[in-house]
Specification:
heterodimer, A: 438 residues, three-stranded antiparallel β-sheet, 5 strands, globular, disordered N terminus, B: 463 residues, alpha+beta, Beta-lactamase, 2 domains, six-stranded mixed β-sheet, five-stranded antiparallel β-sheet, 21 strands, 22% strand
Chain lengths: 438, 463
């Protein structure tokens, strides 16, 4: 344990503890998030009373469900972070309202998935409250992750150019959404065990000291296999998220910029190779540089996204008054463009602010931990969610090439929603652990 | 390790700050262009749901309206080709132009109170209605101008000297906006450029009509010229270059020089002014200046001061050389003389009404330029009255009203001279000014002056 952690804990001793006041802040913030959801649903109801009624009912029930989770935690003296649940409530309500507005059938399904996600969240905070034992199973995560990624290659179903779906009849599952949890857990447990060696190295290569193959090989293998599989699945966005999370966690654990730089070098080399090897990668980059010549074909999606954003102005057209259905895949990956069209710049920046609060709390939780495994899981989960949100928002605004990933908590999709609620549960458990310590 | 986590936090927050900044840029700077991009289907979509507003002329005559056959609206232009350069068109295939395009937001009820009204209408399932535009144009005068041009290439501009309101802005040949989709291929390929609004965007040498500007410059620089007698032997030598006049005018005063359009006198006056004063005078009459009209207007051009040689100066002074103007500009030159040296800002939109008929925009009358002094303009006016009485512009004379005018026959590389006339009436108490040009149609005195006279008469005394 480094001395910095010790000092931080001493400071915590002197600070008045928020936990004595129970979860009042969470309650107040949930009232705000609930009001926001109900206002949105009411607008939908007023403009289309038939389908709007479902939206209204779904918003009421969803808000109630968030309050039930809050009440449950309050009763069990759960001390997880007070801000994360309200922020998540606001994000998933935004998703729910927009899905009802875009396509009520998706709205109903998303409603069910939010309830399932909340149930999973409660289970995680209940059953995995003592989560440390999770650090024991790192090779199980690796195996499970690899299997989960290989399955779709053989049995998968292609959707939107990515072959990353498993079809279970009544619903489809996207294993890569769950694998990201396994990636965080694997890296955290592996890095905790091998941190010292990775920092110091066991042999020297000229001026550089590097660890032996037994330490870095599992890491490199994990990284290479997941990336290769993702290339075969053509799911570039997910590969990018895994990879940047991987770099962030290795850097945090080792403090060695060399690893981060070496990783980035590898990534640039990989990206250049992909550009020349794969037509679909080259096409994406060309569209990104200039979508207008391809406006009727491959550039259609990003052009429609930009039109939607540009037509929104500062205040937006108002909920239900724009034409976001012109955008392909607007209910999943491009939902942010719909938000920008109908809620304008202010709505778009509002969503960004919610993610910023989420990241801020996640980093705070990571800084507040006493255990290395806790710190790595918390920072890894925060990095993962933050980077995923960044990559898709940057994609739909054409700041980066558009790659298909979901916008956490907002986009339509059960796998994505449930996986993100599990990550939320892990973050909350870590803060619960830190708050309960004293 | 905590330090690294802190750094990660900074990096992530930095990434989101970049996103927020970029999103603002996209909404605020790029947004307007993206919203009206021809590939953006939103405008057509809104269009199909809104009863688009109408465009009227100053007397309430409909220039553009939407008529419904069943639920499908069709845009109708009752005045057809007469005002098509101004009113413009909306075509799913060929885009939109003119006031139909510039005032789209108002016509579709997307501005001000109409925006909220139509939002309510949409929520309640009622019809959404757009606002109306009232132009300053007098469509009967416009019709007359088109008739008088008789299918020849040219333009007519007629405006109220006291307000700057444009009553006629006619360009020939024109096109029928009701049949745009069928006509389009022939319109874009036609050599006579029917889509070009010659009245504001035509580029012509002004010929002798420009002597009005030269006279204003010379008289302001040297008021004694009023009493001076010039001598015209029928030619002028400038640095070995011989500038021929139409005839030897002999001894003449400045007003007579205007009336008979003496090249020798005006070339001398231009040389006397020098490049700088000459160029300053041109700018005072609006050369090179955007008048801020609601439709695109070409601001005119001339050689820059440093490039003006004596030969160039002498020919510029009589409206040849590198001086190029639009018909709108020459109408404003006439208006300046009529209005004691003051040019009012020209405008075309009298009012914009919202869907309930209350005005959201109303024209105001503003001085655009003070071109010259009342004394100078009085002398030039005298010359222009004499031009109509006995000089080159006698064909502009009408019964019952005194007209002031100046003709021009501008040489150009495309054949016969362009026939010009600028003038105003009534000469004693001017109300309207006019500019007429017919491309390669012959002399201004015989071709353009009669058209100018008839239009002034129709505008002032109604016949």
């Amino acid at each position: 344990m480094n001395p910095g952690t010790f000092e931080l804990n001493n400071l915590n001793l002197l600070r008045p503890r928020g936990r004595d006041r129970g979860r009042k802040i969470e309650f107040k913030l949930l009232v705000l998030a609930g009001g926001y959801a109900l206002a949105g649903a009411l607008v939908l109801y007023l403009s289309e009373p038939v389908s709007g009624l479902n939206a209204l009912a779904a918003a009421v029930v969803t808000t109630a469900a968030f309050f039930i989770v809050h009440i449950f935690w309050n009763k069990n003296r759960y001390r997880g972070d007070l801000f994360l649940l309200p922020v998540t409530a606001a994000l998933s309500s935004t998703g729910l309202i927009f899905l009802f507005r875009l396509n009520p059938a998706y709205g109903m399904r998303q409603f069910a998935w939010i309830l399932i996600g909340l149930a999973v969240l409660v289970l995680v905070t209940r059953l995995l409250a003592n989560f440390r034992f999770l650090s024991e199973y790192k090779y199980i995560y690796a195996m499970a992750g690899i299997v989960a990624l290989i399955l779709p290659i053989f049995f998968g179903k292609e959707q939107g150019g990515a072959k990353s779906w498993l079809d279970f009849g009544i619903f489809q599952m996207q294993p890569s959404e769950f694998v990201k949890i396994l990636v965080v857990l694997f890296l955290a447990s592996f890095l905790v065990e091998n941190r010292e060696i990775l920092i110091k190295g066991t042999r020297s290569m000229g001026w550089l000291s590097v660890p032996g193959p037994s330490e870095w090989a599992p890491l490199a293998a994990m990284w290479a296999i997941s990336l290769l599989i993702l290339v075969f699945q053509r799911d570039l966005g997910t590969a990018l998220i895994y990879f940047s999370t991987f770099l962030a966690m290795v850097y945090i654990a080792t403090s060695r910029a060399f690893y981060a730089l070496f990783g980035m070098g590898l990534f640039v080399a990989g990206a250049v190779a992909c550009f020349f090897l794969f037509d679909h990668v080259r096409a994406r980059v060309e569209i990104w540089l200039n979508p207008w010549p391809y406006i009727d074909t491959t550039g259609y999606q990003v052009a429609q996204s930009l039109f939607a954003i540009g037509s929104g102005g500062v205040l937006g057209t108002g909920l239900g008054q724009g034409y976001p259905n012109f955008i392909p895949a607007v209910h999943t990956d491009l939902i942010f463009s719909a938000i920008c069209e109908e809620m304008g710049l202010l709505g778009g920046v509002g969503i960004l602010l919610l993610f910023i609060i989420f990241i801020f709390r996640g980093i705070k939780i990571a800084l507040n931990t006493k255990d290395d495994f806790d710190a790595l899981v918390a920072s890894g989960a925060t990095a993962l969610l933050g980077l995923q949100a960044f990559i898709i928002i940057a994609g739909v605004t054409k700041l980066l090439p558009l790659t298909g990933v979901t916008l956490p908590y907002i986009s339509y999709g059960g796998s994505s929603l449930v996986a993100n609620f599990i990550l939320l549960g892990l973050l909350l458990n870590i803060s619960n652990e830190a708050e309960s310590r004293l | 390790m905590k330090k690294n986590i802190f750094k990660l936090g900074i990096v992530l927050l930095g990434l989101f700050s970049i996103l927020a900044a970029y999103l603002s840029y996209l909404h605020m700077i790029k947004g307007p262009a993206l919203a009206v991009n021809p590939y953006n289907r939103r405008f057509q979509e809104i269009e199909s749901q809104v009863r688009r507003g109408s465009i009227y002329d100053i007397k309430g005559v409909v220039l553009a309206k939407t008529e419904f056959v069943g639920s499908k609206g069709t845009r109708i232009y009752p005045r057809g080709a007469d005002v098509s350069h101004l009113v413009g068109y909306i075509s799913e295939r060929y885009g939109r132009a003119g006031f139909e395009s510039y005032y789209d937001n108002y016509l579709l009820g997307m501005e001000g109170a109409d925006r909220f009204r139509n939002l309510t209408n949409k929520l309640l399932g009622r019809e959404q209605v757009g606002g109306d535009i009232i132009l300053t144009i007098d469509s009967s005068l416009q019709r007359m101008a088109i008739d008088l041009m008789g299918g020849r290439r040219g333009a007519v501009v007629l405006l109220d000297t006291g307000t700057g309101a444009l009553r006629v802005l006619a360009s020939s040949p024109s096109f029928n906006p009701n049949k745009l989709d069928e006509l389009w291929p022939s319109l874009v390929n036609s050599e006579s450029s029917p889509l070009l609004n010659r009245a504001t965007e035509g580029v012509y040498p002004p010929g002798s009509t420009y002597k009005v500007v030269t006279a204003a410059g010379a008289l302001s620089a040297n008021p004694d010229l009023t009493g001076k007698i010039f001598d015209c032997p029928g030619y002028l030598d400038v640095n070995g270059y011989r500038l021929n006049d139409t005839s030897a005018h002999g001894e003449l005063s400045i007003t007579r020089a205007i009336a008979v359009s003496c090249n020798t006198t005006f070339a001398q006056l231009g040389l006397g002014l020098g490049p700088e004063s000459f160029s300053r005078t041109a700018k005072a009459f609006g050369m090179g200046k955007d008048p801020g009209l609601e439709t695109p207007a070409w601001p005119g051009s001339m050689a820059s001061v440093g490039m003006i040689t004596p030969t160039e100066l002498a020919s510029s002074a009589i409206g040849q050389g590198e001086v190029l103007v639009s018909p709108l500009q020459m109408a404003m030159v006439a208006a300046a003389i009529a209005n004691k040296g003051v040019i009012m800002r020209p405008y075309l939109v009298e009012a914009v009404n919202d869907s309930l008929g209350s005005a959201v925009q109303k024209a105001t009358h503003k001085t655009w330029l003070v071109s010259t002094t009342p004394e100078t303009s009085e002398i030039i006016k005298e010359g222009m009255i004499e031009a109509v009485r006995y000089g080159t512009a006698t064909a502009a004379a009408v019964s019952g009203m005194k007209v002031a005018g100046k003709t021009g026959s501008a040489q150009n590389p495309h054949g016969q001279t362009h026939a010009w006339f600028i003038g105003f009436a009534p000469a004693d108490q001017p109300r309207v000014a006019v500019a007429v040009i017919l491309e390669n149609a012959g002399s201004g005195g015989s071709v353009a002056a009669p058209i100018g006279g008839r239009l002034l008469s129709a505008a002032v005394i109604g016949r």
